[in-house]
């Protein structure tokens, strides 16, 4: 018969293990009183696994727990692309897209309320006019737009390859992707020709830029295939610069595991922490890395497992590439009033 001492020891070890499992620390950056939040709400504009390249919305009040809008239906039928939104010089929102990677055009839409969108401009870059990139193929991937308040300029970025893939080496197409950009003051007229953003001999895609204090950060997907000799391949990394257009540093160590893409970056509700989301493709899951500054270090939170006692963040099932932005509580309520929020949207 088991002794009382042994029973008590077994009980303590068991309950301690369960307690540790159930008391994982919550991600930093939250606020006890939502009224004290610097960043009151968030919008996730995205596509879905079943409806790739079309526009859907999810929202959050804490940047960690997301709920689908519009009963998980499209919110804007005319839109196609990998959605990316910036708030512009005039207080309106600008949305970048393209009908497909083989399309020569980038379409910019504008909205004052994130609900009613109208076409703002169609820009067709002459890719072979890019200096030192005359062999560029006329392909435009995942255009992204960012308004830099300090220079009063928009930077429009995208990736363009210069090699076709082959059956023997399909990866050479992706390894040949280079990030290009143009500048604009109004997203109506653009700089004379596209320019390479980086002087790097590596593939880069899904690049977007943010300015924090006096430094610019380019968030990058390293598009080289991972090997023993390139272990950073297919990860999310960050390069830095004192200027919007560079020169940028070599990308720092990976933030994510391999085979991650489509990064998104938001500040926490208290505005002291950064949340970096990224997709494990193709549409498998989302990861979240957390840091108190963009120079790192970063750690990964647990989530998107659909186990409530383990997840520290949650997202609707089947969400794919997109962007996340901060919005006001009034904008959040207006979106919820317009589309309705799906309280339980974490299942198919």
TrEMBL record:
* Listed InterPro entries: GH43_arabinanases, Glyco_hydro_beta-prop_sf
Q: Which SUPFAM superfamilies match?
A: Arabinanase/levansucrase/invertase (SSF75005)
- The signal peptide stretch is 1-22
Give the top-rank taxon of the lineage listed in the UniProt record for this protein. Bacteria
Per UniProt, the keywords (alphabetical) are:
Hydrolase, Signal
Question: In the record, what terms sit under GO molecular function?
Answer: hydrolase activity
Q: What is this protein called?
A: Glycoside hydrolase family 43 protein
């Amino acid at each position: 018969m088991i002794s009382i001492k042994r029973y008590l020891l077994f009980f303590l070890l068991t309950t301690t293990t369960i307690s540790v499992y159930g008391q994982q620390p919550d991600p930093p950056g939250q606020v006890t009183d939502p009224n004290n939040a610097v960043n009151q709400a968030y919008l996730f504009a995205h596509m879905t696994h079943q409806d790739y390249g079309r526009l859907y919305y999810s929202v959050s009040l804490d940047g960690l727990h997301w709920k689908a809008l519009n009963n998980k239906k499209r919110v804007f039928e005319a839109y196609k692309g990998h959605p990316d939104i910036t708030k512009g010089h005039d207080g309106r929102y600008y949305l970048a897209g393209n009908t497909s990677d083989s399309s020569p055009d980038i379409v910019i839409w504008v909205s004052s309320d994130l609900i009613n969108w109208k076409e703002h401009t169609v820009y067709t870059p002459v890719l072979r006019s890019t200096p030192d990139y005359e062999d560029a193929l006329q392909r435009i991937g995942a255009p992204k737009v960012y308004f830099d308040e300090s220079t009063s300029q928009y930077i429009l970025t995208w990736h363009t390859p210069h090699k076709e893939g082959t059956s023997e080496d399909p990866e050479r197409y992706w390894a040949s992707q280079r990030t290009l950009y143009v500048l604009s003051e109004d997203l109506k007229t653009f700089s004379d020709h596209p320019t390479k953003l980086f002087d790097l001999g590596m593939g880069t895609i899904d690049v977007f830029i943010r300015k924090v204090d006096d430094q610019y950060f380019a968030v990058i997907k390293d598009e080289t295939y991972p090997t023993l000799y390139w272990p950073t391949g297919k990860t999310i990394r960050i390069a830095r610069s004192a200027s919007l257009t560079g020169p940028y540093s070599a990308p720092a160590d990976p933030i994510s595991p391999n085979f991650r893409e489509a990064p998104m970056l938001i500040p926490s509700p208290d505005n002291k922490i950064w949340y970096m989301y990224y997709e494990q493709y193709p549409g498998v899951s989302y990861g979240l890395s957390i840091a108190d500054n963009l120079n790192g270090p970063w750690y990964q939170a647990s989530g998107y497992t659909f186990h409530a006692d383990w997840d520290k963040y949650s997202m609707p099932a089947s969400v794919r590439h997109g962007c996340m932005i901060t919005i006001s509580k009034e904008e959040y309520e207006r979106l919820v009033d317009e589309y309705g929020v799906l309280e339980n949207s974490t299942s198919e």
